[in-house]
Amino acid sequence: MGPKLITVIGSLNTDLITRTSRVPLSGETLTAESFSTGSGGKGANQATACARLSRCRRSPSDGMVIVQMVGAVGADIFGCDLVADLEQNGVDTSHVKIAKGEKTGVAVIVVEEATGENRIMITPGANHSLRPDQFDDLPTPLPAMIVLQLEIPLDTVIRITHTAKLQKVPVLLNPAPAVPLPKDAYQGLAHLIVNETEAGILAKGKMPEGSVKGNLSAACDIFHQLGVANVIITLGGEGVFYSCSERRERVPSLPVKKTIDTTAAGDTFVGAYAVCIIRGQSIPESVRWANIAAAKTVEKEGAQDAIPWLDDMPAA
Fold first, then answer.
1. Phi and psi (nearest 5°) for 13?
2. Can you tell me whether residue 314 is helix, strand or coil?
3. Cβ neighbours for 296, distance < 8 A, ≥ 6 positions apart
4. Which of 60, 107, 132, 243 could form an S-S bond across to 248 if both were Cys, CB 3.0 to 4.6 Å?
5. Rounded mean pLDDT of the chain?
């Protein structure tokens, strides 16, 4: 049997990154430390993570997993660069379309130098040209897993989950940026990966506001009752909590030399986890390996540039 296929359906954005000592106050002008551009978008980041973490830096065309990106860019230089970067990382871009009359999505990112924490504003552009009727059937060949986020239209995401269920393809949903979801979005969902804030938004009204961190098991139970098989809640510098049929457990964070930039940490975690799962690793093993990958990512600047390759990682 050949390598299994992961299909990532989601956003491609050009990142416009400003690094500053602190975030300016309302009405304040502040001189920044630096400015750069880079390839991003949660979909493209997660596709890059899946690709890099299943192949070595010296041979990106030869991976243990085939990674396919489905999305849209504008007919502009940003779009060309995004597609080229994905291909250099070993991602199949044959299903990335050029949306006529649309500009490529853009993310404006402000990074605080002292902490590595970020604030992000997104202009969706071509990402919102992905419509539900394009996914009455999944792209072929059918993948071993579909990975989704919420930077494309919500009704499109819901249609994809329904189609995947009909075609018996497991879905990993990373609902970011988080918005309340209809109940049927969770039914039959194989994997839900959220951070603490996102978990609170999705569970709003079902548990006391702001109480997720102190009630991680209760939060997971809410999603299990809605039909999710495996729930993972990432907690930034405080580790990860997961709940599955085997067990539920809190995994501590790993020491890092210095936190430089947290922009791609969550997307790296998702990609690493997806690769482990379709290679037959258990949920606990997958969470631990993804935790290591995310920790390595925050030690570098940028989004896709910061994601480690397989040869930067210990054996899964």
1. -130, 150
2. coil
3. 268, 308, 312, 313
4. 243
5. 93
pTM for the full model?
0.92
How far apart are the C-alpha atoms of 313 and 316, rounded to whole Å? 8
Crossing angle between the packed helical segments 42-52 and 77-88, to the nearest 10 degrees: 20
b or e along 211-244 (b: 16 or more beta carbons within 10 Å of the residue's beta carbon)? ebeeebeebbbbbbebebbbbbbbbbeebbbbbb
CA distance 296 to 306: 8
pLDDT tens digits for 252-311?
988 888 888 887 899 999 999 999 999 999 999 999 999 999 999 999 887 898 999 999
Cβ atoms of 131 and 144 closer than 8 Å = no
Cis bond before residue 177 (omega within 30° of 0): yes
Per DSSP, the three-state class of 100 is coil
Residues 6+ apart with CB under 8 A from 5: 65, 66, 67, 68, 141, 142, 143, 144
- pLDDT tens for each residue of 185-226: 999 999 999 999 999 999 887 776 667 878 899 999 999 999
Taking only the tens place, the pLDDT of each residue in 49-66 is 999 999 999 888 888 999
Which amino acid, residue 168? K
- H or E stretch at 162: helix 154-166
Q: Which of the four pLDDT bands, split at 50, 70 and 90, describes residue 73?
A: very high
CA 273-274-278 angle, to 5 degrees, is 120
Catalytic residues: 267
Overall size of the chain counted in residues: 316
Q: Which helix or strand (DSSP H or E) is residue 57 part of? A: none
**What's CA 86's distance to the chain center, in Å?**
15
